[in-house]
Amino acid sequence: MAETPHKRPPTAQAFVLAELRRMIIAGELEPGQPLRQDALADRLGVSRVPLREAFKILEGEGQIVYEPHRGFKVARLSLEDLLEVYRIRQLLETEAAHAAVERAGDEVLEAMKEAAGEVERAAEAADILAMTEANRRFHFVLLSGARMPRLERLIQVLWDATDTYRFIYYGVPANRQRVEEEHNLIIEAFADRDAGRLVKNLDQHRDHAVDALRAFLERQ
Which pTM value belongs to this model? Predict the structure, then answer.
């Protein structure tokens, strides 16, 4: 079993869910690969009960799919799915950005800067998994500033469903550099409390990722 860099989650189900997500993002479990419950339970050192519960959550997120008489397998990457998720994210995150500009304090700005620094350090080290995690922190610091927990939870589900795509995107050095630059623009717009510019920068940030991933998926 591959060791994770973080503290083990407090419950078996949380641990299994975190590990399966990590394995999918890192490509240890590939798109279309069958998920054998006995083998995974042995690998993770757990019973099949928390594994089944984690499967239900991942299926709801669209990260794995169930086929009758065949069982679960990792979902294949889909341009159509990616475009739908990112369009919904655009709508929800635009609302969150406007609210964050009005409601968030300076502590959100400082936390964004700190997370952006983590993204940059991970990018320089070409640590894609760490960059993916730091990037999530950066964006959800901003989203938390909206003080709309239901909205934040909805966006969380969308992010969970597309982490694999971000891992692919960050695999290209030029994309990692672009992410750093775009994060700085997002920080500047938020610091100026300019909601229009913040939304524009967030839109461009997503669009660049979609364009690169579209090219990748079409080559597949």
Answer: 0.78
